[in-house]
From TrEMBL:
One of its GO terms (biological process) is chromatin organization. This is Lysyl oxidase homolog. Its main location: nucleus. Residues 42-143, 167-279, 303-402, 412-521 form the SRCR domain.
Length: 762
């Protein structure tokens, strides 16, 4: 529903809440006030991260002003929040927490009981009587939830003036396009959809509307066509006009006035209904065959989002001096977050998140105390404090952006699960000229594919991928397999965008009880290797074979070790690895406790057969030596201050890595090495990959690998320039992409041969 956009902004994440009356059915009106009560209007402004917080501002006598923090209390905050339509106040802040306001300070020494219907009824020095400065401006945080059916009779704020906003495609060429990028801007008021008169409309208004619906910017359109259309059909105009500056994250922050041109809801002073035409980001732009001529394109890739569950959200990272780093959340606001969102091809920001809410990054903190005007093309153009002293990754900033409504959720569902977050995966497809639900073949079904399903359904991250779903009986009519050979790279927005078989399906096991299934979770772990520890602890050791029997049994030595006499030795490249969990949930092994394997050599249970790969590569990327791929025991070696250890290998204890803790594998334990006995002196690349088979779902796989430059002269070895992430290519991902590309080429080649045979026969 289009209404989801505005309801999300109003504090209803899944549309209008069930059980509450729709506004047109039951409306909360402003209460009757004593005749001598000053008529005021309130808003929350300033450097805020969400719509329900900010500096308290009062509109009186034609001018916006602020409220002083003297004598202010949670009871006064309660009155403010209720007057703005929120259920209650959560907290309040003195000393211009949300920045200093401008203009008059309308109220000072405010004292409320909490039951007043408006701030103007609370005790104060009198309206406009104050000895405060704007450094004392008060701010409040209100609850996310709205008063059901709340609606002002006379207000300056659009989000409580109308019930919904939409872009309605008018021209036939746009009606079937997804997403809808051009059409009338319509508001729903009193249960009826109305157009807005364009006499006082500006391009800044269009920019804000496009941002709300997930588009980074607006563009020109063919006005002549719409004028002809307006002559044929009599519009119904809204009584108000909108005045935006263009940098608002949502139209609810724009000013509202009476539309002087719109008369009797039928005329527009020579104008026509407002039309917007929005430019979609590259990820949402249809193919050229659908008629789009232009899509928004990033000029440079200097910003990225990491750790988010869905498209358009994540921790903000910027590229500086060839190294990715994070942004400190000091002064992080919806305005700055919107610059990031538009830069990446999304719309305006829905939320500016702080405190490492979407996971903690690694490396430097590049930017702090960012201040944007809202019109910058990149966050790197905004003013910021280059000194990030005192900022840690616990303060990493993140965003949630508005993205276009693509309708992906309507073509996929989970069936038979115990809750809405799990079940058999069922896909809606065209079959025999009609729409029908069917299952997905589970051959090759894995974590990456499950991640795409959970993202498409807006259910967060995958927690498990299932190749059998007999315990989740779905509808019998949906048992037949309608999709097979599914292979995803992990970046797709929907399962249909993954590689899969064409009209000729291949699924020996069939659907039904053997169909693919998933379970989803709002959070996920995120493992990151500390590159400095590797660089600082590397050394070389010549170790006798008679001391390597356990390692030999676990295949931790190269294949030539079987020919090495017990009296001889093997040359080992040793190092420590410190693996942090920077995610939002604990990292737990996939295998159930009963299936863990006891290892006599190490005297503990191993819960994962493959946890890391250690490889030595030539400079052209060829593997010349590899470390062990044996199983590991996962535990909390150390934790950040205030976090308790939860996992320990001893005594058959629970295994895992707690959020905020790390597991250290010291350089002096078995198999913590690469056997370089057969390696010639030279320059190499050392690579470590964590969770290489994607056995356990994580919020971000791109930081699971690390590379270092390595120099070996036959007697000594040096490790330098160690770093995580995007500068390297993960071999497992390369193999997956190669498989996908090879399959596409094979499919194309087969199709071409079939066509050739067909026309040759003709």
């Amino acid at each position: 529903r289009w209404s989801t956009h505005i309801y999300e902004h109003l504090g209803y994440p899944h549309g209008y809440p069930q059980g509450y009356p729709e506004p047109e059915q039951e409306q909360y009106s402003a209460p009757e006030l004593p005749p001598d009560t000053p008529r005021i209007q309130l808003r929350l402004a300033g450097d805020k991260r969400k719509h329900n917080e900010g500096r308290v501002e009062v509109f009186y006598d034609g001018e916006w002003g602020t409220v002083c923090d003297d004598d202010f209390s949670i009871h006064s905050a309660q009155v403010v929040c209720r007057e703005l339509g929120y259920l209650e106040a959560v907290s309040w802040f003195p000393s211009s927490k949300y920045g200093k306001g401008e203009g008059r300070i309308w109220f000072d020494n405010v004292q409320c009981t909490g039951k007043e219907k408006t701030l103007a009824l609370c005790t104060s020095n009198g309206i406009g009587v104050s000895d405060c400065k704007h450094t004392e401006d008060v701010g409040v945080v209100c609850s996310d939830k709205r008063i059901p059916g709340f609606k002002f009779i006379n207000t300056m704020s659009l989000n409580i003036q109308v019930e919904d906003v939409r872009i309605r495609a008018i021209l036939s060429s746009y009606r079937k396009r997804i997403p809808v990028t051009e059409g009338y801007v319509e508001v729903k008021d009193g249960g009826k959809w109305k157009q807005i008169c364009d006499v006082e409309w500006t391009k800044h208004n269009s920019r804000v509307i496009c941002g709300m619906f997930g588009f980074p910017t607006e563009r020109k359109y063919n006005a002549r066509v719409y004028k002809m259309f307006a002559r044929r059909r009599k519009p119904s105009y809204w009584d108000y006009s909108v005045n935006c500056t263009g940098n608002e994250a949502h139209v609810s922050s724009c000013k509202l006035g009476h539309a002087v041109a719109a008369k009797a809801n039928t005329t527009c002073g020579g104008g026509t209904p407002v039309v917007v035409s929005c430019v979609p980001g590259r990820a949402f732009s249809p193919t050229p065959m659908t008629g789009f001529r232009k899509a928004f394109r990033q000029e440079q890739t200097l910003v990225r989002l990491r750790g988010g569950a869905i498209v358009g959200e994540g921790r903000v990272e910027v590229l500086k001096n060839g190294e990715w780093g994070t942004i400190c959340d000091d002064n992080w606001s919806l305005l700055s977050a919107t610059v990031v969102c538009r830069e990446l091809g999304f719309g305006s920001a829905k939320e500016a998140l702080s405190g490492g809410r979407l996971g903690q990054g690694m490396g430097p903190v590049h930017m702090n105390e960012i201040e944007c005007s809202g019109f910058e093309k990149s966050i790197t153009e905004c003013f910021f404090n280059k000194e990030s002293l005192g900022c840690s990754h616990e303060e990493d900033a993140a965003v949630r952006c508005n993205v276009p409504a693509m309708g992906f959720q309507e073509r996929l569902r989970l069936s038979g699960g115990r809750n809405p977050n799990e079940g058999r995966v069922e896909v809606l497809v065209e079959r025999n000229g009609s729409q029908a639900w069917g299952t997905v073949c589970s051959d090759g079904w894995g974590t990456i594919e499950a991640m795409v399903v959970c993202r498409q359904l807006d259910l967060g991250f995958a927690s498990n991928a299932f190749q059998e779903t007999w315990y989740w009986p779905g509808e019998v009519s949906a048992d037949p397999v309608v999709m097979s050979g599914v292979r995803c790279s992990g970046t797709e927005m929907s399962l249909s965008q993954c590689l899969h078989h064409g009209p000729h399906l291949t699924c020996p096991k069939g659907g039904g009880r053997n169909a693919a299934g998933v379970s989803c979770s709002e959070t996920a772990p995120d493992l990151v290797l500390n590159p400095q520890i590797v660089e600082q602890t590397t050394y070389m050791e010549d170790r006798p074979m008679f001391m390597l029997q356990c390692a030999y049994e676990e295949n931790c030595l190269s294949t030539t070790s079987s020919e090495t006499p017990a009296s001889s030795h093997r040359r080992l490249l040793r190092f420590s690895s410190q693996i942090h969990n920077n995610g939002q949930s604990d990292f737990r092994p996939k295998a159930e406790r009963h299936s863990w394997v006891w290892h006599d050599c190490h005297s503990h249970y191993h819960s994962m057969e493959v946890f890391t790969h250690y490889d030595l590569l030539s400079l052209n990327g060829t593997k010349v030596a590899e470390g062990h791929k044996a199983s590991f025991c996962l535990e909390d070696t150390e934790c950040e201050e205030g976090i308790e250890k939860r996992y320990e290998c001893a005594n058959f204890g629970e295994q895992g890595i707690t959020v905020g803790c790390w597991d250290t594998y010291r350089h002096d334990i078995d198999c913590q090495w690469i056997d370089i006995t057969d390696i010639k002196p030279g320059d190499y690349i050392f690579q470590v990959v964590i969770n290489p088979n994607y056995e356990v779902p994580e919020s971000d796989y791109s930081n699971n690998f690390m590379k270092c430059r390595c120099r070996y002269d036959g007697h000594r070895i040096w490790m330098y320039s160690c770093h995580n992430g995007e500068a390297m290519v993960h071999q497992a991902l390369v193999e997956r992409l190669f498989y996908i590309r090879h399959s596409v080429l094979l499919h194309c080649s087969t199709t071409l041969l079939e066509l050739k045979d067909h026309f040759t026969h003709k």
